[in-house]
Amino acid sequence: QVHLVESGGGLVQAGDSLRLSCAGPGGPFSILTIGWFRQAPGKEREFVAAISWGGGRTTYSDSVLGRFTISRNNAEGTVFLQMNSLKREDTAAYYCAGDPADILDEAGDRWRITDTYTYWGQGTQVTVSS
Fold first, then answer.
1. What distance in Å separates the CA atoms of residue 17 and residue 110, rounded to the nearest whole number?
2. Which of 13, 30, 61, 119 has the fewest CB atoms within 10 Å, counting from its CB?
3. How far apart are the first and last CA of the chain?
4. For residue 60, which of 47, 45, 72 has the smallest C-alpha distance?
């Protein structure tokens, strides 16, 4: 069983930055594809970014491309989501998700689908005020 724990959320102003962390203590973290998703009140959970096992492949949603950066440190068992130039529409609960499949190396785009991922964290809230 893999437990994922998110941290780093908070209340910030538009234009500010935050860095979220996703930790997988005690589990096979280095062989998990990790994705970040977010869910705003009344909306479906949506894909934000994903990173491959070794960190060599990343992908982003159009809404965050150029502002967010996903990275990982497998030695520390942590994936980061650096969020810059935050906007009010980035306000949501952010979740990290993991799966043992090398999803980013496959054809298609199932990395953006929530059901693809086996393991989920409890989420961390990000609120951006104007």
1. 28
2. 13
3. 40
4. 47
pLDDT in tens, the chain (130 residues): 788 999 999 999 999 999 999 998 777 888 899 999 999 999 999 999 999 988 899 999 999 999 999 999 999 999 999 999 999 999 999 999 999 999 998 888 999 999 999 999 999 999 999 8
Q: Which residue has the tokens 């479906």?
A: 44
Helical spans, DSSP H, in the chain = none
* Enclosing H/E stretch for 20: strand 18-23
3-state SS, 88-116, equals HHHCEEEEEEEECCCHHHCCCCHHHCHHH
What does the chain come to in residues?
Answer: 130
For residue 49, the surrounding DSSP H or E stretch is strand 46-51
